[in-house]
Amino acid sequence: MSRRNTALAAALSLLPIGQPLLVGTLGITTATTAVVLQAPPAVAQDASAVARIAKAITVRIEGATQGSGVLVKQEGNRYTVLTAWHVVSGNRPGEEVGIYTSDGNEHQLEQGSIQRLGEVDMAVLSFSSGSAYEVANVGDIKKVKHDQPIYVAGFPLNNSQNLRYETGEVVANAEVGIDQGYQLLYDNETVAGMSGGVLLNADGDLVGLHGRGEKDEQASSGELVMKTGVNQGVPITYYNLFASGAPVVVAKNTATTADDYLAQAKASQTKKGREQTVIKLTTQALALRSSMRGYFLRAYAKDALNDYQGAISDLNKALEINPQYAPAYENRGNAKKKLKDYQGAITDYNKAIEINPQHTGPFNNRGNTKKQLKDYQGAIADYNKAIELDPQHAYGYYNRGLAKKNLGDYQGAIADYNKAITINPQHADAFNNRGNAKDGLGDTQGAISDYNKAIELDPQHTLAYNNRGSSKSDLKDYQGAIPDYNKAIEINPQYADAFNNRGIAKDNSGDHQGAIADYNKAIELDPQHAFAFNNRGIAKDNLGDHQGAIADYNKAIEIDPKYASAYNNRGYAKSDLKDYQGAIADFNKAIAINPQYALAYTNRGWFKYLQGDFQDALKDANKALAITPNDGATLDTRGLAKHALGQDRSACKDLKRASSLGYQGTSQYLQSEEGAWCDNMR
After folding, report:
1. What is the per-residue pLDDT across 235-292, written as a single tens digit (0 to 9) for each?
2. For residues 450 and 438, is the Cβ–Cβ distance under 8 A?
């Protein structure tokens, strides 16, 4: 029966802070008055100088939120820092904010100095220091063109003592107004904590602030949701307006250029439900200028709309423009995987890895594809590589746990889920799947505890409600299980498995008609749902409709010819119609598929007993009891077979043991006149 469902960086350039800068001439005085040191604005002379400038002018901000900023102005010993508004917006009046400069020194925020610039994601704040620090040289934003080099720097959350510096290219420099001022697009690798960091041109001039990067997201299948690879920044235009005393407003409200349309498309891409808008805007951009990023963004939107063939077509065009763009291969692999072209997906992931062997994503997703092909060991090898590249790669641990669970290594799976949860305590899917692994070990209460946590973190977690319902069913709490299935169905009315599982709970509660209605719905949603056909057959059997039950078991077997339970159940239905030979043939088939199927041995033994084949009945009962030693029905069969063979003393022990285990048929037999022979046995 279907009971459980499993929900499945580029190399860093790190510049240490706290080291002396050997640039600029410092004026030093021996007077006893306050010392004021001044340094000229930083100006780059070659590519390596851009990194040095980034280090000199970028600061780390520690407040309600950690982020980055840039020194843009010095007046005496007072410095002005430009940062992203969302870095400081959570600070309440009077709260301390630490500002760390390139020498590693901490400076305290000048209270009351935080100001937002208009409605864009920019803010200024101030601190005072007697030390001399370089300030940024503001560049000409109008000279920033697509495909030109651009540099981003900031302090990552996971390594806040080191400045991360990444090179990239400008994707678009729009003039049209974008929400929060995100008019600059670029493809540099960024991570959390870099918000508010510098965007520098090739001369080392400040042309904007990094505002928003992209995060890896994971689908319930365990796949890393593909990213566009495009970040959003705010151009320095708005700071220039603020510094001049002019209103901080956008000058242009209508898109006219490819850059304008691309920036609008990216802004829409961050909002669910705007996929058609993204397609329209990128199509307009591509009509004005063919670009790899335009096709890439449009492919992203098409993928979100399940138009995988359309996404592949656009990614093909992106790769025609840049055949060495690894993310396009990775994303095309993701689309092929969704179309079940697993070998084609693996080929694309291989290519992405060949181009960039340091990126975790293709290893993770190639592992997921191997998992689909049931190559769990191969999948684990890929997850191992992803974890080797990034020991904090929560998805790698999570997905490796899925593969281990599929191999029956529940303890190993739990260890991996534990690690994923340690890295990301908000990982609802990891709690859900750890619950599945605990359930596999028989720890039903522990499983429920994990499903509770998954639901606490994500109240719309359909799978966790479904799985919690199944665990409650395992505890025979059917009335508690049904509301969980109801909730799963409320969240996702197309969730066939939840209807199937609710049907099981209703059937076990005696509501056979209600169960059939749920199985009907599961089959309507998924006509290939073999479990629902099998379970509907059970409900029909319970209502005495044995012919209808056999028809459902036939369908389940047609869908899945290796479905041992369906053969067993069909055999039982045939026995109700007195077709014992047909029943035994079905039990034979179930056992051939699963030689450890105790119930099929028990059933075959019982009907052999009814036909007078007591020796074979005894053999089947012994086989079943070797698998499940405390099954009352099997002990009953063995006891009766032994009695028929004259082994009364041993037979009586089996029957009394079956009765002590609560098997009602045996208890009634021993109390009857027919079973009186066992009364005096010791």
Report:
1. 999 999 999 999 998 878 899 999 999 999 999 988 889 999 999 999 999 999 999 9
2. yes
